[in-house]
Amino acid sequence: MILPIYIYGHPVLREETKEIAPEYPDLKQLIENMFETMYNAEGIGLAAPQIGLPVRLFVIDLEPLAEDEPKYAGFRKVFINAKIVEEFGNEVKMNEGCLSIPGISESVERNSSIRIQYMDENFVPHEEEYTDFFARCIQHEYDHIEGILFVDKITPIRKQLIKSKLSNLIKGRTNCHYKVRAVKK
Question: For the structural domain made of 5-181, what CATH number should be given?
Fold first, then answer.
């Protein structure tokens, strides 16, 4: 089922998220719905807060990028109760966008490598290291479960320059090809 994506300004995007247990209601269906929602919006990552659930769950699928970059083929993962235990390497700037902040992309600085602990969809624990774009995507989605959005990481002057665009999102003025849920005033 395709779910609405919550837009910038909605309080759930800033809420403290809770860990989930294997007994979480309809977890497999939720994960399937998250992938379906993400694909419908033409995204490569989606976190539970973006669909209105303040829980520590996000999904990533880089397969759509594999035609241009074969190393992304087959990278489809579920991250439950994730914890980035180390960020290292060079700080690298790259343009980022977000399904919850449609129509805006900005240069964001992130570490080039991470080590993360998480559970997969079967609650099998993992500890893995990722670099480059893999690390960037994971950090972006991980930020969502920490209540952080990519616009929190841009320079003050860039944030000032997009202030009116962000204000329009809060007011529900967006032109998305996917279902959204804006802040109700």
Answer: 3.90.45.10
